[in-house]
Amino acid sequence: MSDRNDFGGDFAFFEFAPADGTGMVAACTNATRTGAKGEAMTLTGGGICTNSTSSLATVTVPIAQTGGSGAIGISVDSALTNLVLFPSTLNNANWGTTQNVGAPTIVSTNNPDPLGGTTASRVQFPATTGAQYSLKRQSLSGAPWSGSCYAKMVSGTGELCLFAGSGTGAVRTALNATTWTRMKHENSAQAGGLFVGTDSADCSAGGAFAAQDVYLWNCQLESGKIVTTPTVTTRVATVVSRALTIAGSQFSLGVSWVTGSNFTANATAFQLYKDANNSVTAYSSATGQVSCAVRIGGSTVTTTTPGLMVANAVNRVACYYDGTNTGACVNGVCTLTAGAITMFEGATTLYLGTRSATGNESNGTMKQLCYDPSATRCSRENSGFHARAGFGDSLTNAPDGPGTGWPDRYTALYPSTPVTNWGLNGATANDIYNTRWLVSGTGRYTDVVVFGGINDIRTTSDSAADIFTRLRQTYDEVLAQGSNLYLVTLWPVGNFAGWTGAKATVLLELNTLIRTHCATTARVTCIDAYNSDLRDGANLAAIYDSGDGLHQNQAGSDYLSELIHQVLP
Q1: 14-78+240-382 and 96-223 have identical folds
Q2: Does 144 sit behind a cis peptide bond, omega within 30 degrees of 0 on the bond before it?
Q3: For the chain, which residues make up each domain, given as ranges?
Q4: Which residue of 65, 248, 296, 332 is 20 to 30 Å from 412, comparing CA positions?
Q5: Helix (H, G, I), strand (E, B), or coil: what is residue 457?
Q6: What is the pLDDT of residue 145?
Q7: Closest by Cα among 195, 173, 146 to 363
Q8: C-alpha separations of 455 from 371, 452, 506, 551 in Å
Q9: CATH code linked to domain 388-567
Q10: DSSP calls for 202-230
């Protein structure tokens, strides 16, 4: 077994699902996974995942998937029973109907499904407007609920309404005839069950519904704050662990956790377990704080981070003891509890995303698990973060679906110099600073790329100077922490709905301010997306357009990655 990783560096004492992917093989397969140095793992679980052809598949081992940016990790799921009975057979007696305009028609129940079988139901829903609705439902009491259904149009494009509970927060989802889309309503506070159909009363924001002819498959209702791995009937809890014999007076533990949209109290990041009286456990609060509980000889010291994890993002969680302090870290920001401990030694088990007893699973994708008998190897000083990060809006995050953000594509194209994705859909300049930089960026990265401002132009009538002033908040903080700053100019979006000549003028003026800042400020470099092949006159070039005139497709992110790669050292 080699102690060297693929980039020429040493692995820690133990690593699993490292950044270079050693030991992980391919996503969504039954292939054997090992530790980074070939260590055998205990792996229990399995379920439905997305394979290399973007189709769903069933595996009988814990689900390996990318999740967020970077290398492959493991989906660690709690045990679950799908509360929807006959989740794909919508003419079953367990499915009811609620309507005031006409009942849905179940055409057939033997249609192609995402797993290659023939279990999907074809359902025709009538048009609705105003307070009208036509829904299939399974009624249950209790809350909070999270519900989902896979849907695909029989032909063309369309949309459906779905909610878990009584309709508050109902979600309207666009559908097409090419891909299966998982409709979701998460963290509903209302009792009532699961409802799906045309519903102008509860999904009123989009106006009237036309008649819809759709395939539905695997409708799922679960108790909890997020929609988890698709489950037709039941699943067992995921267990990923490795027996370790440890020694030393200090330690560091770290993991990258791709969270869902909400946090669950006591969800586990990792546990190093010797026995009931000796363990190290990292877990979250319901708000996303992380606590490190170090239990020695039956006494526990708990340290809780001041900062929060970020929803729907890759978060780095670490715990350590340096001989003087116990530390708890989330996204590089740590808090300390002073006091000496005598670290336990000998035979232990290291668990990923769960504990010695099932329950309190992370229900997220976990990767880059690291243990070392030094205080720094897997903690804040070497926490597995990339040296580079991209901050911005949906053009950075996921412009054309998961994994299509430019940091994700940059990491795939240039894996030896990965980039952490801190894009946020819909982010304005203030959001980039307040929601992303202050929470996620302070004091960590060598090189920072900022690509923002389009939502300020799109949603306000503010001047370029006002928008630039707001962007400067992030620019100045990046430089103050000692990072190199790279600014991406905005490409033209003339084909985007609602775009005007006045907004185009603001975009040009903002680009001029950005270029001037690069030319006059030390450690600031411009990456000119406007004057590149991404531009076609007043529009985003068609070959790089996801279809709305604003967001780039994967090819666009690949091209932008190449532009950035030419400039980054």
Answers
A1: yes
A2: yes
A3: 14-78+240-382, 96-223, 388-567
A4: 332
A5: helix
A6: 85
A7: 146
A8: 41, 8, 12, 12
A9: 3.40.50.1110
A10: TSGGG-PBPPEEEEEEEEEEEESSS--S-
- Tokens 């205080």 locate to 375
Residue 301 tokens, joined: 């010291």
Rounded-to-10 torsion of CA 3, 254, 75, 286 = 180
| C-alpha pair distances (Å), 161 with each of 95, 158, 195, 328 | 16, 11, 8, 42
The 10 Å CB-count burial string (b at 16+, else e) for 54-84 is: eebbbbebbbbbbbbbbbbbbbbbbebebbb
Q: For 134-190, give the secondary structure using H, E and C.
A: EEEEECCCCCCEEEEEEEEECCCEEEEEEEECCCCCCEEEEEECCCCEEEEEEEECC
Q: Which residues contact 339 (CB under 8 A, 6 or more apart)?
A: 301, 325, 326
What is the C-alpha separation between 152 and 192, in angstroms, rounded? 25
Whole-number Å distance between alpha carbons of 546 and 398: 11
3-class SS of residue 275 = strand
Pairwise CA distance, residues 362 & 73, whole Å: 13
pLDDT along the chain (569 residues), means of 10: 42 91 91 95 94 84 81 93 96 96 97 96 97 94 84 97 90 95 91 93 92 98 92 95 96 92 94 98 94 97 86 88 88 80 97 95 94 82 60 90 84 81 88 74 77 97 97 93 93 96 98 98 96 95 96 95 92
- For residues 366 and 73, is the Cβ–Cβ distance under 8 A? yes
Q: Which of 447, 471, 455, 429 is nearest to 524 (CA)?
A: 447
Is CATH 2.60.120.200 what the domain over 14-78+240-382 is classified as, yes or no? yes
| Rounded Cα–Cα distance for residues 180 and 218 (Å) | 11
What is the Cβ-side half-sphere exposure of residue 126, based on CA atoms within 13 angstroms?
Answer: 14
Residue 272 to residues 284, 301, 344, 354, Cα–Cα distance (Å): 16, 15, 10, 10
Residue 509's identity, in one-letter code, is E
Q: What is the pLDDT of residue 386?
A: 57
Residue 441, SS3? helix
Q: Which CATH number fits domain 96-223: 3.10.310.10, 2.60.120.260, 3.10.270.10, 3.40.50.720?
A: 2.60.120.260
